[in-house]
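Weekly structure sync, notes
Attendees: PL, DS, HV (note-taker this week)

Item 1: Drug/metabolite transporter (DMT)-like permease
DS walked through the input record. Source organism listed as Variovorax guangxiensis. Sequence as pasted into the shared doc:
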Amino acid sequence: MPSFTPRQFIILVLLTLAWGFNWPVMKLGVADYPPLGFRAISIWLGLPVLAVALVWLKVPFRVPRSAWPELVWLGATNMFVWHACIILAVKALSGGRAAILGYTMPVFSAVIGALLFSAALTRRAWLGVGACAIGVGLLLWHELTNLSGRPGYVALALVAAATWALGTQLLRHTRIGLPTLTLSFWMTAMTAVVMTVLSLLFERDQLYWPNDVTWASIGYNAVLIFGFAHAAWFYLARGLPPIASTLSVMFIPVLGVFSGAVWLGEVVHWQDWVAVALMVVAIASVLWPSRSAAKA
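Item 1 (cont.): predicted structure, written out as tokens:
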């Protein structure tokens, strides 16, 4: 197993809890509010939290002009597509199902790493990809057999996961020699602009002053997700090997499913139970070190 410093381990635990519980929180936030507008407000309010962190830690804000094209591409793959697609999926699907689909990211990351970055993909990893495909198929089958289901939103969640996987690989191979917090701040700022433009284009007539529940959800997302979780993820993704930096995602969708069932009374169908098991198997098969690696 990869070794964690105490600081990395604490960040990993806090990240898992923050992201895991956020799935029912987001579901509550977008229940009666336009999803893109919800996301835009959350990011704008989270941005000052990140700015305070940079000032407190004496991290520079400045980005060299030559680094901006790559930084925009990192923002697009790590945040723009993910946040737009996944919040629309959360609005239409149960929070638990969206969590399972969104956190297929490590499996996509393994495939992308093999195809684009010459990373070795073992037989066990391919087995994990197959388990993931079956799990997604079960979720999609449930949507197709339910008259109120929306399989198109399942596809949106998978697009979000695949794009985030690409972004994670690009972040690990980035040539930008800047602190992770600097990159996180500017990617978050760009995402705030993108989400605002999308909301104004598609939700202008639906926007209104949020109610108390929506504000509470926005506050959770502003402080814990955009003020902490994304910066924490980028820190782990850049500073640890792929296995270590993506370890927590094995637990986040499970936490999302069960917290959604407890807090929101979401019905957990047998397909969801099987899908949870398959996703955990799939992700573990991709991330868990082999015996030879463990001995080394």
